[in-house]
Structures are given as C-alpha cells and as structure tokens.
Amino acid sequence: MSSGELPKRLAITGLGTFVGGRVAERLLEREPEIEVIALGLHLPHRLEGRVRLHRVDLTEPAADSVLAEILEKERCDALLHAAFRQTPTRDVEGSHELELIGSLHVMNATAAASGMRKLVVASSAQVYGAYPDNPNFLCEDHRLRAHPDSHSMRDRAEMEGLLWLFAERHPQLVVTSLRPCWVAGPTFDDRVVRHFSGRTVTTLLGYDPLMQFLHEEDLLRAVELALRRDAPGPLNLAGDGALPLSTLLRLAGKRSLPLPHPLLYRIDFLNSLRRTGDAPQAFYDYLRFLWVVDTSRARDLLGFQPEYTTKEAWMSFVVSRRLRRYR
Question: What is the DSSP string of 59-74?
Fold first, then answer.
C-alpha cells in the first residue's frame, strides 16, 4: 500500500460505532477490491455477510496476541481503531478498560503483526479540554488537558500520550490520530446532539463561546483520506468558521435557557453522575470556554478540505431533526 492508495485488507475495531460502521459501509460500496475484517464482539446487521468478523474482546489480558494472530492470518496492512464510546456512560471502569487498555492491545498487535504498516485512531478534539486560558486556535502540539471530571476524555488523552510513545518506538508504522470537534449531521447521534435537539437549550449565564462543528460526511471523508495517505501524527478536524453559541441557537430558532453555572452544576450533579458517570461540568464547561482548533495540518498533510462549514453542518443537523418531527 503506497501513499494515495487504500489498504487492500483493512481491519476495523468498533464496527458498532458511527465511524467504524459507516467507514466500512462507505468503502465496501465504493471500493470493490477492498476486504474489511471486523475485530470485536458484535457486528451490525447491515454489515453481516459483507465483512469477516473475528470475535475478540479488546479488554481481555491476551487480546494483543489474539489480535496480532488475526492480523497476520488475514494479511491486513492497516487498522482503523474506532472502538470508543460516543457518549460517556456511568460504567467508568468498563470505559477505562475498553478505551485505554483495549487501545494498548491494539497498538501492541499492530506492531507485532508482520505486514502491518498503518494505524489510524479515531480520537477527539475534546482531549485539549475547554479552559479560559486556551489560545484562540488549538494546534496539535498544544498540551492535552482533558477535563478532569470527564473520565472518557481523561482516558482518551492518556491513550494519545501512549500512542505517540508507541509511534516513536515503531517508526516503520504510519500512526495517525484524528481529533474532530463536535460532529453534526442528519444521522449522527451522541450526547451533544441530544443536548441541542430540544426547542430550548440550557446554556451558561454570561458565557457565549465560539464553537465549531464538523459535518458527519466530512468526518468520514477525513478517515478515508487518512487511510489513503500517509499523514503521521495528530490531525485536528473541523468545519470552516467558528460561530458564537448564541448565533447557532438563533439560526436554529431555538430558545436559550441561561443558568448560572454554580447553580446548574449543583442541581444536575446526581442526574449527571447517574447518566454519564461524570459531574455536569465535564460537559457544560465546553459550553463555557473556548476550544476552537486549528485545522491547517489536516489540510496540508491530508489535503482535507471540509465540504461543509460549521454553519452548514449545524443547519444540516437542525433541519434533519425538524423534518423528523413532521413525519
């Protein structure tokens, strides 16, 4: 596999996630020569008969050797690691085992399997954290300061730290991590989307940060580009432009319910712990402080040019939800 060509045999973890499942579908529909090998415990019904599933639990102690054996047997040349939870759950220990320990097993297997030359990891721009002292644009070399109350982002940031130590030790591999901002579109669903889906949206009194959104189709295109081209290192992804939160809500015809953050964090504390395992600020601080990313590296190394701006990605989500209501 050379730069500009897709892998012939691609392994994917996390086929049940948006990125894992949709990338597999996209490639199978457009690239008849490619073979997709699924690594995990479950396979979506829509992919049955189209990919080969190897049942493996990424959290098992010997998962790395099992994965390496599968990768060699299937003669895979690249792996897309997408086995991350889109929305945090209160199973903090289970998330840690999957997202950190499971990722370590994937790294070890990628290095051990002969013929492997590329590892692409689906990460998140939220690993930078949302803080009042963030620069106007976060570049990939900015220190990762995942929100201390967000267990999933803490694990993701620790995973990325280990990933780059791994990449240094294995220069024969092309290792790429994709860090998208919040994703929006007609079909994408996570906690962020659900927060913005109502007619009235809870916001933080006195705060109106600039925000970015990435359209779901642009996310999938970026993953495909990372599989085609050799672009080692982390890559920020976002639609062009950043808009104030108040502007986004006004464009959507939504009402804002501004609450003082000490009050909101207090009254939502138990409910948030029950739903996500995190205190409320793990989510709401991203609606308080700036965390806008610089995407020039993805443009330069991947040739990634988003087809949708932040505004267009946002409105795509808004219109699609509105249409659902009237069906």
Answer: TSTTHHHHHHHHHHHT
For residue range 218-271, list pLDDT tens digits in order: 999 999 999 999 999 999 999 999 999 999 999 999 999 999 999 999 999 999
Concatenated DSSP letters of 269-281? HHHHHHHHSS-TH
Question: Residues 78, 11: contact at Cβ < 8 Å?
Answer: yes
pLDDT digits (tens, 9 = 90+) for 104-147: 999 999 999 999 999 999 999 999 999 999 999 999 999 999 99
The two three-digit tokens of residue 270, written as one number: 């138990």
**CATH T-level fold of 9-319:** Rossmann fold (3.40.50)
Beta strands 243-244 and 174-180 are unpaired
Name the residue ranges covered by the structural domains of the chain: 9-319
The Cα–Cα gap between 127 and 181 comes to: 10
Count the neighbouring beta carbons within 10 Å of the beta carbon of residue 170: 15
